[in-house]
Write a structure and sequence with these properties.
Layout: H1 2-30, H2 35-52, H3 62-95, H4 101-124, H5 127-138, H6 143-150, H7 154-175, H8 181-194
Helix pairs in contact: 1-2, 1-3, 3-8, 4-7, 4-8, 5-7, 6-7
């Protein structure tokens, strides 16, 4: 009986893979990933879902569930990749000649302007959006834990996260067009650390 159930689950995930693959390809390209890289991320995403042994019948809205989970996967992938790049850059910089002081000052000024713009955009958000974004990206709480802590429903938490990120994106597009949302959320965590 378990073997039949596992086959049905596998078939359902394969059907979802075929149905949402192109949607996820587009989503990944909007995050700035190359086509080969996004294909690997999609494949790994569905393998991870299979390993979790989630019963497809328990998912009421597969499109919303999978899109949200995949978006989170992209953000997590970006964070992980950013950390690896930072370590690589530091190692490469140690081997190179010293960067000019003028270049360093210009880069610091650009970073300070971006950080101030992110801080300003964050402060413009409604309090409820700031609270759930803080809990999600600074304290790394799940949607369920945020709902328990705030007394909001999971749907309200999700809606506030969505609205807050949308408003941040709109505000930041005026300041830094083309900034990737994953980079924005990573920077926002840094901004919240600074206060």
């Amino acid at each position: 009986m378990d073997a039949v159930l596992n086959v049905n689950i596998s078939q359902q995930f394969h059907q979802w893979y075929e149905t949402f693959r192109y949607t996820f390809m587009n989503m990944g390209s909007r995050f700035g990933y190359q086509q080969d890289e996004i294909k690997d991320i999609i494949d790994q995403f569905f393998l991870d879902l299979l390993e979790k042994k989630i019963n497809p019948a328990s998912i009421q809205n597969p499109q919303a569930y999978l899109s949200t989970a995949f978006r989170r996967k992209l953000i997590d992938h970006h964070r992980k990749h950013s950390k690896v790049q930072l370590l690589t850059v530091r190692t490469d910089d140690e081997c190179r000649a010293q960067v000019s002081i003028q270049d360093t000052i210009e880069q610091m000024e650009a970073n300070i302007e971006l950080i101030n713009a992110i801080r300003k955009a964050y402060k413009k958000l409604p309090a409820r959006c700031r609270k759930v974004i803080n809990l999600k990206y600074y304290q790394n709480l799940t949607t369920e834990k945020i709902a328990l802590q705030t007394g909001l429903s999971k749907r309200s938490v999700y809606n506030n996260l969505f609205e807050g990120i949308k408003l941040l994106r709109e505000e930041m597009n005026h300041v830094s067009p083309g900034i990737h949302i994953a980079a924005l959320l990573s920077s926002l965590t840094f901004v919240m650390l600074l206060g």
